[in-house]
Automatic annotation (TrEMBL):
Pathway: Quinol/quinone metabolism; 1,4-dihydroxy-2-naphthoate biosynthesis; 1,4-dihydroxy-2-naphthoate from chorismate: step 4/7; Cofactor biosynthesis; phylloquinone biosynthesis
Protein name: o-succinylbenzoate synthase
Reactions this protein catalyses: (1R,6R)-6-hydroxy-2-succinyl-cyclohexa-2,4-diene-1-carboxylate = 2-succinylbenzoate + H2O
Sequence ranges assigned to domain Mandelate racemase/muconate lactonizing enzyme C-terminal in this UniProt record: 119-218
Amino acid sequence: MKYQFSFRNISQKFTRPVITNHGVWEIRESVIIRLVDMTGKVSWGEIAPISWFGSETLEEALDFCHQLPREITSEIIFDIPNQLPACQFGFESALENLQENHESLNYHHLNFSGLLPAGKAALNQWQNLWKQGYKTFKWKIGVNDITEELAILNLLIDQLPESAKLRLDANGGLDDNAAKLWLEKCDNFPNQIEFIEQPLPVDKFSEMLELSNYYSTKIALDESVATLQQLENCYQQGWRSIFVIKPGIVGSPSRLRKFCQQHQIDVVFSSVFETAIGRQAALKLAAELSSNNRAVGFGINHYFTGSIPNV
């Protein structure tokens, strides 16, 4: 079947910059695609790259869209190269919506993790998220001096209710010594710390595997499994702890679905600060493929004006 294809570039400024070890992120840009089938049915998809995380750049995504004809086929969509994982997700998600007679998305059984700002600001923000119903929080580390961050962690643990869970996300920004310091610290709070996310850079896989076997605090891979190929490679190399999967940049939804169904991995699905279009497609996969009770990382509404932007 053939589909009419069009697209447009959009941007949305965050209410506050997203600060990670990778730098300061102030504006979210993405590409919204539109497919129309022969009956006139319309479907939308979103291409939301994060190049510093391992996907293609926004420019590469736009170049790909520009070179496509205005009428495309499913064969063209499934032939999108692996070097364009965000494009794979956006186009396949739009195609799935056209081809399926699915009921409305139901993800009400999912719990959400709320993203805290880096540094001391986290101490003033968790209460607002708690009042909104969040019971799991993610806090960025590896941004400021480690002594300061460890002191803030103590204060945060003291403030949080006993039933709350805290995730620490280093975005690959720690060295070996710092990672060990954090893990030693977290082992003192087994009931509060759920896991440390990507403590070391992507090229330190063997070191992270060793750390995961030595400390009781769980380690989750994130940047190391940004794309399907990386996910498959890490699994083949023996990773059996937590995988953080960002559907918006991981690649083909059909291939991701097949992998997760074949391997009962411990997975946390997470946002790439997409609009409501990409969010719905990502949460559909999370609702279908999550095999545990871990909160999904989509508690980022407070980083946009009002709510997750519609387009």
